[in-house]
Amino acid sequence: MTKKDHIQYWREESDKNWETAEYLLKGRQYIMALFMFHLVTEKLLKAVWVRDNVGDSPPRTHDLQYLYNETDLTLPTNFYDYLAVIGQWNTDSRYPDYRKKIYQVANDDYIRHHHQQVNDLRLCLLNELSNPT
User: Fold this and answer.
1) CB atoms within 10 A of CB 31
2) Which string of b and e fits 38-75 if b means at least 16 CB within 10 Å?
3) Residues with Cβ < 8 Å from 114, sequence gap 6 or more?
4) C-alpha separations of 22 from 44, 72, 98, 105, 133 in Å
5) For position 103, what pLDDT does the model report?
6) CA-to-CA distance for 71 and 50, rounded, in angstroms?
7) Is 73 left (phi over 0), alpha (psi -120 to 50) or beta?
8) DSSP string of 86-129, one letter each residue
9) Cα separation values, 50 from 20, 58, 96, 132, Å
10) What pLDDT, on the 0 to 100 scale, is given for residue 94?
């Protein structure tokens, strides 16, 4: 596979996860939708990592800020800080003691707000990927 193929792979996987998140939102499966939001973001950052680095295999990490720091991206500060929020959903959706906490806050307003925020970030990252370095 070429570098371009690797980037395309991560983009396509992110697109699939975005579709899944949208489906989960319609079914009010908010916790799993938040988990998908994390995967969408992670996979786009991995595509950018491949673009910006010599290798084609991004680090095997779910730490979004770490991935970001390993790229040449310059996102607005609010997006960088937001990566920590999204990263928390990876943990909150997996482990029982954290799930209770996220179930308490993941209401319609919370989801609507974060759906828009993640989509804004997603579009920003997709835009970055369409601009060659």
Assistant:
1) 17
2) bbbbbbbbbbbbbbeeeeeebeeeebbeebbebbebeb
3) 34, 37, 85
4) 17, 29, 23, 19, 31
5) 86
6) 9
7) beta
8) HHHHHHHTTSHHHHHHHHHH--HHHHHHHHHHHHHHHHHHHHHH
9) 24, 6, 34, 12
10) 79
pLDDT at 133: 57
Identify the pLDDT of residue 101. 84
Hey, what amino acid is at 130? S
Q: Hey, what are 63's tokens?
A: 């730490």
Amino acid, single-letter form, for residue 18: W
Domains by residue range for the chain, with CATH: 3-130 (1.20.120.330)
Q: Are 126 and 11 in contact (CB under 8 A)?
A: yes
Tell me if 113 sits within 8 A of 37, measured CB to CB: no
Q: Specify the residue for token string 């989509």.
A: 119
Tell me what pLDDT residue 95 has.
78
pTM: 0.95
Average pLDDT per 10 consecutive residues for the chain, totaling 133 residues: 96 98 97 96 98 96 97 93 95 78 91 98 96 67
